[in-house]
Amino acid sequence: MSPVTVVEGRKVSLSNLEKVLYPATGFTKGEVLHYYATVAGPLLAHLRDRPLSFFRYPDGPDGQHFFVKNVPVGTPDWVRTGEVPRSDGPSRMVLVQDLASLMWAANLVTEFHTPQWLVQAPEEADRLVVDLDPGPPATIVQCCEVALWLRERLAEDGIEAYAKTSGSKGLHLLASLTPTPSAQVTAYAKELAVEASRAMPGLVIHRMTRSLRPGKVFVDFSQNAARKTTAAAYTLRARPEPTVSAPVTWEEVEECRGPDELSFLAPDMGARLEAYGGDLLAPLFDPGRARPLPAP
Questions:
Q1: What's the DSSP call for residue 116?
Q2: One Pfam match, by short name (predicted)?
Q3: In 49, 65, 78, 274, which residue has its Cα 20 to 30 A from 213's Cα atom?
Q4: Is the pTM of this model over 0.70?
Q5: Vertex 113 angle, CA 111 and 116, to 5°
Q6: Cβ-contact 197, 213 below 8 angstroms
Q7: What distance in Å separates the CA atoms of residue 231 and residue 234, rounded to the nearest whole number?
Q8: 101 sits in which H/E element
């Protein structure tokens, strides 16, 4: 039988705690669960009230992996769920609202992906996201160069951007918005991507055509679409090592000179949270910082 622990009064079954999920470092499932418990405070703030898509990799990043959007079979009845619109009719998705449900979800071995809207207002985005994806031989160094341009461009529209690593190869920019239809946010983000490609034609592309990507940074605006999701801050990623989608300072972005400089592993995050006094993305939760998009 799987061991059972009590988390905030809830019984949570945990399984295969000694199983190595990241062979490159020997990082085990037990360590995955410990990591998520360590970052639960800031992570839960980023997950709360956002319907979750789980990217599962129960045998590690080299094994089978798959997305789960509907409520998984066997979900405890105390895990909250929410109804969300779909083109084929309403569906129910998981809401991770507390430590117990976080530990239950983490035991499934998952990345956490969220939309840019809350379950209370589907398709009304309260976030803008821009995903900067480098095409080799471009690296996160080039992503940082593009991020700095986008930061200044967003500031011209009164929008304050914050940065985090994707936990994979690139960088995400986030900004807090007053509730805005997802389609409108997507259109605005596409305009930004087009402007960036015109300002830096040798460095940036805004089209998804893979043959155009080598050596350039793809500015992906599409994750603002209502049906799309983005890896949440502090989620682990299914990579050879337990990399994290980690918030970073603009000073770190400005000073990035090497492809490995902004790569953070699970064991790094406790010290980073302590060093920076908490979540670098906390301003995203301040209603006073939310801004409307400029008029079309």
A1: S
A2: LigD_Prim-Pol
A3: 65
A4: yes
A5: 165
A6: no
A7: 9
A8: helix 99-106
